[in-house]
From TrEMBL:
It comes from hydrothermal vent metagenome. GO terms for cellular component: type V protein secretion system complex. GO terms for molecular function: protein transmembrane transporter activity. InterPro entries: Hemolysn_activator_HlyB_C, TPS_OM_transporter. This is Haemolysin activator HlyB C-terminal domain-containing protein.
Amino acid sequence: YWRHTFQRSRSFNSYGLLQFSRKSARLDVTEGEDRADELTVASIETGFDWSSPARRHLVSGRVQYSEGFDGLLGAMEPTRDPAETDTSRRGGSGVYAGGQFAKTNLGYDHWYQLTPKHTLHFSLRAQDSNDLLTSLEQMSIGGPNSVRAYSTSEFLRDKAVSGSVEWLLRAPGFSQWKAFGNRRWGEVLQFLFFVDYAKGWLNDPLVSDREVVSLSGMGAGVRFQYEKFSARFEVASALGDEPVGNERDPQYFFELNYLF
């Protein structure tokens, strides 16, 4: 890959990124033949982050365009003959997915500090494609980075949009109490309440496929960060009529990180 920084400052940064990759995924099937997806993909991306002078607003965004190529470096080619391909996906038209596709991805985050102890976070992720994509390139909806009331990758879709609104509170009632070292609790501990929503579409679906799905949920959580250590715990319940695949309601997510 190649990355270039266009601008770098305290309040605004921007970059460009070119990538060329070879991707492979294998699916072990209990009954029948195992399946495999082979892709060769080129992508171009640009992104930025910006903060207001008083740092009440923090904004970041990225746009990525990706294109796959039939037959290049062993990538798949589309066909109607199942004997000529190992791909994992077949469309309703009878065509098996090939290596050629085009898609655009968008990511946007906006943090707005209402007061020193209260922050709103708006998050948006989207993908658009008119092609029959395999799981390597589909957008997943559900999980800790999408709708948290559902399991990770509850659905995979060719087109999708996912958004969240979070209200973050810095250690309400004890933010000025001393915590660790020279830090106060308001600097290391946050509580949050959130609402998530996602909707996804399949291109050329099979009769047995659901062309459109939508997920929604709400929940609460806590986040902790001190020096190189961070932790995240969140619990969420579904709001809509879509049943949860793993039948867990509420859903729990826990994450620990340490930077070496």
